[in-house]
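If it is no trouble, might I ask you for a protein's amino acid sequence along with its backbone structure tokens?
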Amino acid sequence: MIDAEPDARHGLIMSFGPIRRTPIPFEPESGSDALAVMDGLSGDMADLIVGAAGCSPYLKSLILRECDWLKMALACDPALSCAQELDSLADCALPDLSARLRRAKRRIALLSGLADLGGVWSLDQVTGALTDLADRATHTALTALVAEEIRRRKLPGKSEDDAATGAGMVVLAMGKMGARELNYSSDIDLICLFDEDAFAPDEYHDARAAFIRVTRKMCGLLSDLTAHGYVFRTDLRLRPDPSVTPVCLSMDAAERYYESLGRTWERAAYIKARPCAGDLAAGARFLDRLRPFVWRRHLDFAAIQDAHDMRLRIKAHKGLGGALCVDGHDLKLGQGGIREIEFFTQTRQLIAGGRDPDLRSPRTVEGLAALADKGWIPPDVAEKLTAHYIEHREIEHRLQMVQDAQTQTLPTRPAEMDRIARFCGLAKTDAFRTRLLGRLQDVSSLTEGFFAPDATECAEPDLSDHAQDIVAGWLAYPALRSDRAKQIFSRMRPKLLTQLYTAADPEAALAQFDRFLGRLPAGVQVLSLFEANPQLIDLIVDICTTAPRLAAYLSRNAAVFDAVIGGDFFAPWPGTQALRADLAARLGELDDYERQLDAARIWAREWHFRVGVHHLRGLIDAFQAGAEYASLAEAVLGALWPVVHAEFARKHGHVAGRGAVVLGMGSLGAGRLNAVSDLDLIVIYDAAADAQSDGRRPLDARSYYARLTKAFLTAISAPTAEGRLYEVDMRLRPSGRQGPVATSLPAFEAYQRTEAWTWEHLALTRARHVAGSPDLAAAVEAVRRRVIADKACGATIRADVADMRARLAQAKPAHGLWDAKSGPGRLMDTELAAQFCALASGHHACRVEAQFQAGQRAGIIDKPAQELFLSAYRLCWTMQATGRLLADSTPDIAALGETGQNLILRAAGADSVDALTDLLQSRAKAAAAQFDTLLLQSEPRP
């Protein structure tokens, strides 16, 4: 320790730090007694000692007892003095540990108290120093006791070296200790676990008994009151089912409890959990396994009601109801107190933290800042609650410093209230009361509206007899089976019915919502989401009145509503590269393959829903929607390919060469999908014919890439717990269904040059790299361009296309008047014309518009013909894409509801159903006639 030296003004050279505030001594004579033992102190430091001892009998006793040490400590940075005291615990023998721990507690309590009162340390530094003491004391006690068990041969299979890491036992710090927010006279909440995998099955019971003994002795070593005082009161009641479980239980038993019986308050508790003593690595693994329990993957608005109910139960149990009054108020649990700020923060974290790891901070102030930064609470609310929280905690510390009592209750006696006001540096108690009352009221008003369900009454609309029958049947649905779901629904029902009856066809909207509700497997989460976010009721009504297919999709995938309120839902499309990077980062956070596949499905589902809602609400048109669906598919394939490859390589290693590429064909290759499109894919690889993979189960190159391709297709199309990503069609690969699922680059080129039919060359005009090796992709693209250029000189292109067109017309005739896809001059026909233009001109363009432009530049079609084809194509795509958004099959526009009709008519630029009928027929007829003329011309000679 640094020696103190005299100073002309202060008597000692102080490294303690600048003193920014001092308490006013409530008992000046007690302050003078403390100052008398601190030889040579003057100025601000003397005022701090007098104020601290003059307000706190406990601090006075510590100054008198530890004055020699304190004189030296004040010559150092307080953080250094605390660290030196903790380091002195190292290698302390077990018989001496009790006294040494209590000495450390006295000294750090004294120094941190003075640093707090003098404003030398922030609240964060004060609570951090107290938490460091708790961590070191717990770990030192645990390891010493475990070492004793090992010496007594009570821990099978463990040596003295294992004692330093607890021999498989870990202590989880919970509550304020876990968050490094310990208050001045806090007890510490601990959960003691042991890793059963560290022991053989026949050693389990001996180990369990030894760890139970260690836990009991550790608690006594920390909390027993001796002649030297105590260290920390310990509380083990946060462990699973504490009335029937031992004080230390296996991690497996704890995990099984939380998976089956864990409650919302336990989830909230684990926000702050961290390993603090013993086997920290095992503790971290346990918390990682528990993460799905704590952080639900969906927005969890049901947690709001749980938190509200919990608050009411605490207030009822503690008798904390009634009017707000400063005298006798519980600063922790009472109205406007610390717990309300913590509940407010933790509940919001539980709602959204499963989706956003940035919101998972265990610390209250950091949590408020993160919630404000991510838009979950207004910044001014976060700022106010942060300021109130810090001042509440500082007053809490002063209440506890008086007698080292674990209390948060404000005095009822006027003299003791005067003491607390002086301790806070205020000479007038009325000013202290007024300031504190204002803060309590502000906290209450800021948080109460968030917790309490909206009790605003709304009159229900008059319902027809048929509508009343529909509504009466809702209580029989699975979504409203539980009492809790019924309570939530009863509160939101008036607003819901009112919104449904603002639709153009209220009865149809009600019937569609009835189908949505009837398909929901459960209701508490979805209904809580609606109740907390009334704008979602508007959205579901909009969907039910316009897009029955989307409403049916939502009933099976209601979690996609999370995306509406969980981010920039209505922001512009971020682009394929940004999407791929985002999904890759999401998948990179997971180390389990099945979880990665599920995460990809959840992520893609939300973005897919976003495109549909944007299209439905007119934020984008059918062409932009088509491009975004294709961009999403490309991002998914691009991010998932390396994940599948890495998982496959764990068994089979890698093959020398440039790897493989995935080509998008058909609509994906053309960069335009609709809401229900499947994906046409082919896989091409580059490796020597005799190459072998280098893994523990080697494969030849052909088998390797065939099996890798099948693994990739399974990852995309196999149903998991979260459904499937896409249906996949690989019939466009060389030799179709009979060909290998993956083709080598030389074989692909040879096939395209010597064996492929004209229809396969037409398909090649829309092939585009969507995943896999960029290096190989460039080589494949070069081959594609050469093949198309060479085939442009083919003598039978027109005849082959005419034959193919006739076959398509026979195999896929139009299904009714409103079929925009099949039939002469409609979508498939105009896309075929575009592919013909690309192939006949030898151009590499993939997109329909660019293919027609290539044909026009090559003289295959003239400008009027190009515009005629595009006019029909644009109308048919608009009708097809919009129709697929609204219904699973080709919709009968005349039978659609008024809102759905208006959407299609508006998109197509028609005033009425009859006008749209005429427009579709005339444009299709003109395009079909133009295609007929085109195919009757002589073969081109580029």
Q: What stands out?
A: The longest helix spans residues 622-652. The chain has six domains: 1-120, 122-294, 302-451, 465-565, 586-791, 799-936. The beta strands are 169-173, 188-194, 234-235, 248-250, 274-278, 659-665, 679-686, 728-729, 742-744, 768-772.
